[in-house]
Amino acid sequence: MNKNDINNYLHQLTEREKLYKNNQVSESMDDYSDFEVYTNASGDSVFKYTFEKHLQKAIDSNRHISTHLHTSPLLVFKHNRYAYTPLHSHDFIEINYVYSGQAHITIDDTTLILEKGDLCILDTDVVHRISNTSDSDILVNILMKKEYFSSNMLNRLASNNIISEFAVRSISETHSHDQYIVFTTDDSEILQDAISGLLVYYLDPVSYSLDAINAYMIIIFSELLKSYTQKKSLECRSTNQQYIGDVLQYIEKNYATCSLTDVATHFNFNASYLSRYLKKQTGTTFMKMIQDIRLNHACALLKNSTYSIEEICQQIGYRNLTFFYKKFTETFHCTPKKYRNSYRKIVEE
């Protein structure tokens, strides 16, 4: 199976979709019929979706990949077209990606209209429903156990640099407060390519499918981080404000040489104001931020280059080798040489 096959797979009518289209599905055949149901404060019936029951349904209907599914921390499938999904909540994180057409998702009294390329992440216990979809409305659903989303995805992304760390924290806070977040990706080709790649390894599993799926999920969330930071930057510029992400990006790019005064001058800030602004927005000081960036880059160079430790010290902006050794050892509890040797030992094993 390749990515062209995925496009055909998503557009092709399934047997269930044919029944839905011709109004031949009875209530007992609906996907939600065997879930528990409760009545909310408004008197509406709400179905309680669970990851385990969705997993069992997936195994029953996909016997050729059932072994793979048992070990997967996520489920991926195409949302049935022509089918109304009633009010429900779930014990997992849900991603809805609009592959083509539109999708209408109602949460409380708000109806979100997602266009092609848009993606919505829904938290656990969010009561929502999805309206009927038509021929061209193709929605890809990704169901994730909460621990996979929080520990696997967000932590790995946040470790990349200060920009992604700040964006991940902001997204997490927004997600926790609103219980959902919508990403407008301008129909990103990279995102659609990653979704297709994810489906390839999910639907046609091989021994290394889980590694490939994790890699594609990293790409997907990286695209969402980019979309989020670009959106916030544009929003701030429209009100003549400076987005913190732009400041962090400048620091990340010029970490080896820039000072607090340099950054303040570049953004027309007072240095004292910038210091307070960074502390408020990121929870850390400028000097600590610079130190963390330099040491993280040092780790990357120690692992992936043959530069001497003296050369690495100079590249990351330290002029005093003794000071570099001191800061590195304080942070990682070993010398740069031991760090490099231990990494090489792991790779060789």
UniProtKB/TrEMBL annotation:
<dbReference type="GO" id="GO:0003700">
    <property type="term" value="F:DNA-binding transcription factor activity"/>
</dbReference>
<keyword id="KW-0804">Transcription</keyword>
<dbReference type="Pfam" id="PF12833">
    <property type="entry name" value="HTH_18"/>
</dbReference>
<dbReference type="GO" id="GO:0043565">
    <property type="term" value="F:sequence-specific DNA binding"/>
</dbReference>
<dbReference type="InterPro" id="IPR014710">
    <property type="entry name" value="RmlC-like_jellyroll"/>
</dbReference>
<dbReference type="InterPro" id="IPR011051">
    <property type="entry name" value="RmlC_Cupin_sf"/>
</dbReference>
<keyword id="KW-0805">Transcription regulation</keyword>
<protein>
    <submittedName>
        <fullName>AraC-like DNA-binding protein</fullName>
    </submittedName>
</protein>
<feature type="domain" description="HTH araC/xylS-type">
    <location>
        <begin position="245"/>
        <end position="342"/>
    </location>
</feature>
<dbReference type="InterPro" id="IPR009057">
    <property type="entry name" value="Homeodomain-like_sf"/>
</dbReference>
<keyword id="KW-0238">DNA-binding</keyword>
<dbReference type="Pfam" id="PF07883">
    <property type="entry name" value="Cupin_2"/>
</dbReference>
<dbReference type="InterPro" id="IPR013096">
    <property type="entry name" value="Cupin_2"/>
</dbReference>
<dbReference type="InterPro" id="IPR018060">
    <property type="entry name" value="HTH_AraC"/>
</dbReference>
